[in-house]
Design goal:
- The structure holds 2 protein chains of 2 kinds.
- Chain A has a domain of 319 residues.
- In chain A, 72% of the residues lie in helices and 1% in strands.
- Chain A has 18 helices and 2 strands.
- A two-stranded antiparallel ribbon of chain A has the order 1-2.
- The longest helix of chain A is centred in the first third of the chain and has 30 residues.
- Chain A is globular and about 65 Å long.
- Chain A starts with a helix and ends in a 15-residue tail after the last strand.
- The C terminus of chain A is likely disordered.
- By secondary structure, chain B is mainly α.
- Chain B has 2 domains: 30 residues; 101 residues, no CATH class.
- Chain B has 7 helices and 3 strands; from the N terminus they run H-H-E-H-H-H-E-H-E-H.
- The longest helix of chain B is centred in the first third of the chain and has 26 residues.
- The N and C termini of chain B lie far apart (81 Å).
- The chains are: A mainly alpha, B mainly alpha.
Chain lengths: 473, 136
């Protein structure tokens, strides 16, 4: 029963995201492929929107459970009504379906098989660890319990009794929402959240790469992610690192779409803004990522003629999660709680020039990299495939690369100057931080692949383009 | 043709990894986290509408049977990690942890082998001292 209610919650979340997408860009009605891609991105949007909704509700009314569900139902109905009206006001009729080629069917089957096998393994893993790992029960799910039970002391999550006092709350809010649907704090709540974020992490690259680089690139992207040997184990731990990785991957893919795809540009900017802010709303590391990505996107906009037009659209998408984040940080988190509060400036300065620390951190990173790579020969085959297919460097690639390098540099510097004992710090957190960036690292080469010369289904004749410039028919 | 062959190699290799990962996930040793059923004792104030200050500590019944000495706990009690330490190190039986309040304190002190672990909510230290004094 709890799993059925979790699936209902997933569908409502996804539906809310889809309604937002349709309201922003009703022209999707005439573009099946873009609509399908946006439909997948809707999951991330829905997770961000509903977690913000729960946050605003618990702050204003300090109650949860059925009253909150009534609000969410009302929100879903209003958005569905708005989406319905927008969808049917779009003048262009839906295009006839294209006929898929045999090759595309084969790719679809491989993707489906990989997803089924992986998610079966994921379910087994979460069942074997019903409460997840250490931080799951000691921090994330404990916070979720406070948020679910509400009451006068729910703000204790910011002062005492829980680990990660000042961290953003997207994951605990999502778990608390699931518990509202179930009516109890069942272990199924965090398990279902894991499934939700794994769907985000795996489906978004497939959909986005299908649009940006073609079907085979989409398939290879998914296979690269799912063949990562630590994926299921990390997912079963119920930590916030994989949700953050999912949000960062989705944000970067939406940014690539915004920078490279001219159709529905407004939609991709809104989605990019929202998912980037959602990454910041997931963990403190996500805040660094969001700042980096914002700087990169603004730089590209400034370099492009008329690119600045989309800046307000980007900010509009990011507004709600950023307001929630600022609200939490400014109102609730005590002044002394920050990632830098334990830093000793003199010691940090001395540490920065300690050669042993540099060597030790680099060794750890190399160890993690080699272990995450798995079979090197598969990567050799991927490089050969990329070279045969042809390479093309795009703005999206540069943004992705610099955001990734920036994020890894921040982690490196943090380890370098930390006042904690370095070995202990690396031992307890390096793997988790690497988990956040590995999907970004693994998907980066796929962005170098030259886009497919044609769509992977036989496209129908193109109608006249309404939005932006010439469609790639 | 070359592209197709390479893609087949990538697919075969990756799918093998996918199957291995899933098989490993099936083969994971299920962890007995039954003791965690009460890990949320810290939520007692929330559940009962109590002030957090009324929760003084946590009891770990039958500690002596688990074979971990109290001194060990003193080293980690800052984070209240005692339960997971037991689980990790002793592959545990596991322990139930109960929140201690004024109402049930005396009962815990009167029972044998009860230890109260200091924790962050309030008067843990004083009560811990009292509990230790009562031990045989």
């Amino acid at each position: 029963m709890n799993w059925a209610l979790a699936i209902l919650c997933l569908l409502v979340t996804w539906g809310i995201g889809w309604c937002i997408v349709v309201i922003v860009s009703p022209q999707l009605r005439s573009d099946r492929q873009a609509a399908a891609v946006a439909g997948v991105f809707s999951l991330g949007l829905g997770i961000a929107a509903t977690s913000c909704c729960y946050w605003l509700w618990i702050n204003l009314l300090r109650t949860t459970g059925l009253p909150y569900l009534a609000l969410e139902a009302a929100l879903a109905i209003v958005l569905a009504g708005g989406g319905h009206v927008c969808w049917h006001r779009a003048q262009r009729p839906p295009l006839p379906a294209g006929r898929m080629r045999a090759q595309s069917w084969l790719i679809f089957l491989i993707i489906a098989a990989a997803m089924v096998v992986s998610f079966a393994g994921l379910l087994a893993a979460v069942m074997h660890h019903p409460h997840g790992g250490w931080d799951a029960w000691d921090a994330w799910n404990l916070k979720a319990k406070y948020l679910y039970f509400a009451g006068p002391v729910w703000t204790n999550i910011f002062h005492s009794g829980t680990n990660h006092d000042g961290y953003p709350l997207l994951l605990p809010l999502t778990v608390a929402r699931l518990w509202c649907y179930m009516g109890s704090d069942s272990v199924v709540g965090p398990q279902a959240a894991v499934v939700m974020f794994m769907l985000l992490l795996t489906l978004t690259p497939v959909a986005a790469m299908l649009m940006l680089r073609g079907a085979t690139a989409a398939m290879v992207s998914l296979l690269v992610l799912l063949s990562w040997q630590f994926l299921l184990v990390h997912a079963a731990m119920q930590y916030a690192d994989l949700p953050l990785a999912g949000m960062m991957v989705a944000a970067l893919l939406a940014t690539c779409a915004a920078l490279e795809v001219r159709e529905h540009a407004r939609l991709w900017y809104v989605v990019a803004g929202a998912l980037t802010a959602a990454a910041a709303w997931t963990k403190n590391e996500g805040i660094a990522f969001a700042l980096l990505l914002a700087v990169m996107v603004c730089a590209v906009m400034l370099l492009r003629r008329r690119g600045g037009r989309m800046l307000p659209v980007l900010l509009l998408g990011a507004a709600v999660p950023l307001i929630c984040l600022a609200w939490m940080k400014l109102q609730y988190v005590p002044a002394g709680v920050s990632p830098f509060s334990a830093l000793n400036p003199q010691k940090a300065w001395a540490n920065a020039f300690d050669a042993y620390r540099h060597v030790h951190i680099l060794r750890t990173l190399r160890f993690l990299f080699v272990h995450c790579m798995g079979g090197g020969w598969m990567w050799l085959a991927i490089v050969a495939w990329m070279l045969l297919r042809g390479l093309r460097v795009t703005a999206g690639f540069w943004v992705w690369l610099i955001a990734l390098l920036g994020q890894m540099t921040i982690y490196y510097l943090f380890y370098l100057i930390t006042s904690e004992r370095l070995e202990w710090h690396l031992h307890t957190s390096a793997m988790r931080l690497f988990t956040q960036v590995w999907p970004l690292l693994a998907l980066l080469p796929m962005l170098l692949v030259r886009p497919a010369g044609q769509l992977d289904y036989n496209p129908p004749p193109c109608p006249s383009a309404e939005e932006a410039s010439p469609a790639p028919c | 043709m070359a592209l197709a062959v390479i893609l087949a190699v990538i697919t075969a290799g990756a799918m093998t990894n996918v199957f291995i990962n899933a098989a490993n996930a099936y083969g994971l040793e299920p962890t007995d986290q039954g003791w965690l059923q009460q890990w949320d004792a810290r939520l007692e104030p929330v559940r009962q509408g109590l002030s957090p200050d009324r929760i003084y500590g946590f009891a770990i019944p039958n500690l002596d049977q688990i074979g971990v000495d109290y001194a060990y706990f003193r080293g980690v009690d800052e984070y209240l990690l005692a339960p997971i330490v037991i689980s990790d190190r002793c592959q545990g039986p596991l322990v139930l942890i109960d929140a201690i309040t004024e109402d049930n304190l005396q009962a815990y002190l009167d029972a044998n082998g009860q230890i109260i672990i200091e924790q962050r909510f309030g008067n843990g230290l004083a009560l811990q001292r009292r509990a230790t004094e009562r031990e045989p």
